[in-house]
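We were asked to recover a plausible sequence for a given structure. The inputs and outputs are reproduced exactly as logged, with field labels preserved.

PROBLEM: sequence recovery
POSITIONS: 103
GIVEN STRUCTURE:
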């Protein structure tokens, strides 16, 4: 388990890493040299750290592509496209329900 210290007094633990790495994020905010990659995998229940990562996602022009990637690869952990794994799971269910009701 890796622990990384943020610029704020919070500590993040990164127990989960995606098996399939995201595509090369040319121009992505998460790839900036001043951003710690561990920020995208906050400890369960660390809402402040998740909010920080989601805020940075909100500033990124690649947010839709990142979310699409995470949804296609069913990444269960980490912040991708501004959503947590749980939020992406809820979105997947909502999309499935919508597709079922349109049939």
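RECOVERED SEQUENCE:
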């Amino acid at each position: 388990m890796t622990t990384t210290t943020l610029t704020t007094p919070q500590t993040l633990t990164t127990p989960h890493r995606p098996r399939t790495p995201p595509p090369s994020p040319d121009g992505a905010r998460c790839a900036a040299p001043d951003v710690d990659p561990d920020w995208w995998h906050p400890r369960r229940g660390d809402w402040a750290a998740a909010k920080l990562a989601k805020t940075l996602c909100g500033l990124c022009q690649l947010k839709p592509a990142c979310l699409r990637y995470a949804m296609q690869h069913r990444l269960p952990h980490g912040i991708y496209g501004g959503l947590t794994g749980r939020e992406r799971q809820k979105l997947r269910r909502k999309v499935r329900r919508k597709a079922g009701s349109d049939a």
